[in-house]
Amino acid sequence: MWTLRRWLEFWLSTQENRLRPSTMVGYRSVVYDHLIPTLGHHTMRKLRAKDAQRAMDRISRGHVRGGRLISPSSLNGIRAVLRTALSEARRQGVIDLNPARGLKLPSGAKPRAVVWDDSYVKAWQNTGVRPRVAVWDLHHVGQFLSSVQNDRFFSLWWLVALRGLRRGEIAGLRWEDIDLAGGELTVREQIVVVRGADWVGPPKSAAGVRTMSLDRFSVELLSALWRDQRRRLGWVDPNERVFVHADGKPVRPDWLTRRFRKLADSEGLPPVRLHDLRHGAAGVEAAAGMDLKQIQEDMGHSTAWTTIDTYSCIFKSMAAVAVQKSADLLMSHVKLRWALSGAYQA
Fold this sequence. Notes:
Blueprint: H1 4-15, H2 21-39, H3 49-60, H4 72-91, E1 114-115, H5 118-127, E2 134-135, H6 138-147, H7 154-163, H8 167-172, E3 178-179, E4 184-187, E5 190-194, E6 197-201, E7 210-213, H9 216-233, H10 253-266, H11 276-287, H12 292-299, H13 304-310, H14 312-331
Parallel strand pairs: 1-2
Antiparallel strand pairs: 3-4, 4-7, 5-6
């Protein structure tokens, strides 16, 4: 007799060769931390929608590290795993209907990123309280890059800040992915750390495989790096990683995270994650007037909506500037007979 526990464990075993290792780790966590404890004892044929809903309600009241309630995004992931596993059970005739199909989640606002403007920085400096998700303003990115210009991996920080590569993508770059003559960089794979081990695989999604243009300064930086590696090692294998330590060992994504945090903290910059430099890159492109489609492709997103949703704080600040410029332009052609605050003179 199939119980949900037995089915979930069987279903997981069928996914081993289909999913990337990091995804499998996430699936196992969902199954063993949430679904089996709340639903595992139910027999598949007797599992009803009300049972699944009660279990999801119970999970939603659980707490995670820091005493916070489990996040809406985590709940979405748990529901998705349950739906997928039960859909497969239905396809194989184990059950007739998917009881997780109509599961409802408690309403909860997704935490939105904010830009570290002067008010947020001042509040953080005075109280130590920081926004849950925050990204650097353009001058913070400039301050960081100025402070690390003598760092061995300055070209790496520059590329992440300018072109928005993920940490696994930048660590996974090989010299064969760099076209110095044509001024292009191609993202073909990434390195993912799973339980302390490095796994090489494709980017996060099909859209993550992309070719990006390089500016002249980036080409100069990478050319200098190539010459330095050839001088130290005698030659450069096109299949070798671009960013390596002095001993030739490739950099690891988790090391980059720690190194970035140390460099940013030493400069006294407001706290952000290495991944948040991607937000900064999107902001730089938006401020430079790049269209949304190009930003989407550079960030490796499958849809423009993903780009808008992820970088809403960036586009919001850009929109505020654009609206003010539009108002200033229109006001320059309006002859008012009165003034509100002296900002505009008739």
